[in-house]
Amino acid sequence: QSTWGVYKTVAQVAVTILPSRMSAPTEITSEDIYCRGPLLEAVQMLKIFPDDSKEFVDMPMRENPAQIMEAFLKLPKDHSSTGGRLPTGKALKVFVEEKFDAAGSDVSDVLPPDVQQLPEKIHRYVRHPELQRWALHLNSLWSQLGRRTDVPLLENEATSNLTQRHSLLRAAHIIMVPGGRFRETYYWDTYWIVEGLLASGMLKTATGVVHNLLNQVSVHGFVPNGGRLYYLNRSQPPLLSAMVRLLYESCAEADILRAAIAVLEKEQDFWRTQRSVAVVHGDNPAMLQKNNSLVKVLNVYRADTQMPRPESYREDVATASGLSDKDEAATANLYQNLASAAESGWDFSSRWFEDYASLHKIITKSVIPVDLNAFLYQAEKNLAYFHGILAAVEDSELAAEASTKRSIFYKKQAKLRLEAMEALLWDAEAGMWRDFRLDLGRRSEITSASNFVPLWAGAYDTTDSSVPHRLEAVMEGLQCSGLIGVGGVRTTARPPAALTAAQQWDGANGWAPLQDMLVEGLLRSGYAPARLLAADLMRRWLRNCYMGWRRHGLMYEKYNTDICEGERGEGGEYPVQAGFGWTNGVVLKWLTKYSDIVDFDEIVVSEDNKEKKECSFCSQIA
Q1: Which of 15-29, 291-305, 412-426 has the weakest average pLDDT?
Q2: Integer Cα distance of 212 and 170 in angstroms
Q3: Dihedrals φ, ψ of 226, to 5°?
Q4: CA-CA 20 to 30 A from 238: which of 76, 314, 342, 607?
């Protein structure tokens, strides 16, 4: 039986056990411990874990949820400072220590079975001794980032959340974590982790990682933000079809597509039914009755919660304190917008702020993101492509005909989305796409790396005779955007001083997925000047990452791109994390894939000259 056959079996079982996870509202479940309720509020607001709100919600219980809650409600109350609403901090701290195990003890380290000391691609394509040493170190990190879930997977599932003593979502296969405080899998991180695993020749592990996400769609109807209960009210950028395509292109087995296609369509339906918004395009809405083409349907991030995020509970409550209107509806709306920004993967960014500066003025639900719609366009094109392949290999004429019809359907969906993106998001004057502000009825003023993600997704009409002019305009737009830094692509361009948001998805912070999407988008365009720019951007980012690794021995989740010295980025709700899955994945992919178009030796600085030598490409930017 193939691996994909195993996946289908697991998915079918998972679907059948889903009803067992439901419980009567009066019962105490694991969600009442980790996602809502008085215990969560008390632990977070009394700062039992002052350095990181995520710590508590990752701690397994030593007793069943009902027993935990019963004991908590008997704790002595603090009448002096909380009016008896919360227990005393001292009593609660002792309670947590007695009733819970250490955060992350529900997973354990595991060595992926296909880790190789010297992967073929690294041996063949990374020839410089120092770069090969770096690549082999990154390859060895897969041994440190692999985890297995130390909780029952399919046996004992009937116990449901009434006796579930942890917040972890079960996984059938090895999970690869980003690193640091992130003890579970994360949706969009996984795409670049898969890229890195494939560069390291770890197809089996990569396949298992994608299986886990497909199984989550089978169970929940979508891929959650991450592998914890408290992430079940939101997703993340939809890149699952792109991951399946990576696997298919690595082995060309149609069984991969047969096993995944229905699940991928289910995820696409989630975004279509739960995250869509219709916009009337044009100056005369009255024309709507005569011309339905004026209605453009695109997607937004919109989490299904109006409560503080459990893993950032205290931070969200603090943000709500900045509201001028503190009524219940305004606070609930704020919490939903905060969670919606987390769904975007960009938590947080000036992209989501009404005034482009203030977190408490966040309006994520009212922003149509360029990148989200580019991802969904790519998913529609992938589904059309997958169905086309299946139509050609199906034994049954009836099945082949059905696949052909589905392929045509998704091509039409992609065409409609492209038209909507052109109408609402494309800024011809600036040579880039821009987010659309529903509250203002116009495009956003923010210049961000996400404005160029349609290049990566191919979300422009490649058959149009004007494509060379479009690509020329986008190239000029990118080069004049203020996004290109000495050490890579900034997340957002420098705004006026009054609009500085100081969030981690802003400014000079550089993130590996953004670098990769811009580089790949430029290369896929087939435009010669774009190829040169892509090579230049690769050298900048690799030099930055390499310098950080050589000086600190670490790989970070984000870097400062205003310099090329491997320094960590800034901002965010937690300290900069090392590890780091998607950063490692992008570096490994580039080093093993693009040695024919980039002289990677340039990024290596000799030990004797390490403080004096400056990259030729770094010195060209003022």
Answers
A1: 15-29
A2: 9
A3: -155, 180
A4: 314
Q: Are 202 and 173 in contact (CB under 8 A)?
A: no
The single residue listed with the structure tokens 């093993």 is 592
Dihedral Cα 470, 294, 268, 202, nearest 10 deg: 10
Backbone angles phi, psi at 205, to 5 degrees: -65, -45
Cα dist from 70 to 30, 47, 99, whole Å: 13, 21, 12
DSSP-derived 3-state class of residue 448? strand
What's the alpha-carbon Rg for the chain, to the nearest Å? 25
Residue type, 578: A
439 is annotated as an active-site residue: no
- The tokens for 93 are 């701290």
| Model pLDDT for residues 398-408, shown as the tens digit of each residue | 999 999 999 99
For residue 20, give the 3-state DSSP assignment. Answer: helix
Q: Which helix (H) or strand (E) is 199 found in, with range?
A: helix 189-199
**CA 188 distance to own-chain centroid:** 3
Q: Which amino acid is at 202?
A: M
Is the bond preceding residue 348 a cis peptide, omega within 30 degrees?
yes
DSSP string of 132-145, one letter each residue = HHHHHHHHHTHHHH
Both tokens of residue 115? 């880790």
Instruction: State the pLDDT confidence band at 129, using cuts at 50, 70 and 90.
Output: very high
Helix, strand and coil content of the chain, in percent to the nearest 5, comes to 55, 10, 40
Residue pointed to by tokens 């705004």: 495
CA distance 333 to 42: 22
Distance of CA 562 to the CA centre of its chain: 24
Backbone angles phi, psi at 367, to 5 degrees: -120, 125
383 touches 264 (CB < 8 A): yes
**Concatenated DSSP letters of 214-253:** HHHHHHHSS--SBSBGGGTT------HHHHHHHHHHHH--
The CA–CA distances, whole Å, from 221 to 218, 386, 509 equal 6, 20, 33
Interatomic CA distance for residues 230 and 225, integer angstroms: 9
Q: Is 557 a catalytic residue?
A: yes
| b/e burial code for range 374-405 (CB count within 10 A of at least 16 → b) | bbbbbbbbbbbbbbbbbbeebeeeeebeebbe
Q: Which candidate, 515, 483, 535, 526, places its Cα nearest to that of 585?
A: 515
- 3-state secondary structure at position 148: strand
Residue type, 441: G
The CA distance from 400 to 394, in Å, is: 5
DSSP 181: T
- Residues above pLDDT 70, as percent of the chain: 87
Cβ(499)–Cβ(356) below 8 Å: yes
Distance CA 130, CA 550 (A): 10
* Identity at 504, one-letter amino acid code: Q
What CA–CA distance (Å, rounded) separates 394 from 254? 10
For 493, phi then psi, to 5°, come to -75, 165
Cα–Cα nearest to 507, from 437, 572, 457: 572
Q: Phi, psi at residue 133, to the nearest 5°? A: -60, -40
Selected catalytic residue, list 343, 347, 371, 520: 347
Active-site option among 557, 562, 567, 573 = 557
pTM for the whole structure: 0.92
Show Cβ contacts of residue 393 under 8 Å, excluding neighbours closer than 6 positions: 254
Report the C-alpha gap between 88 and 380 in whole angstroms.
54
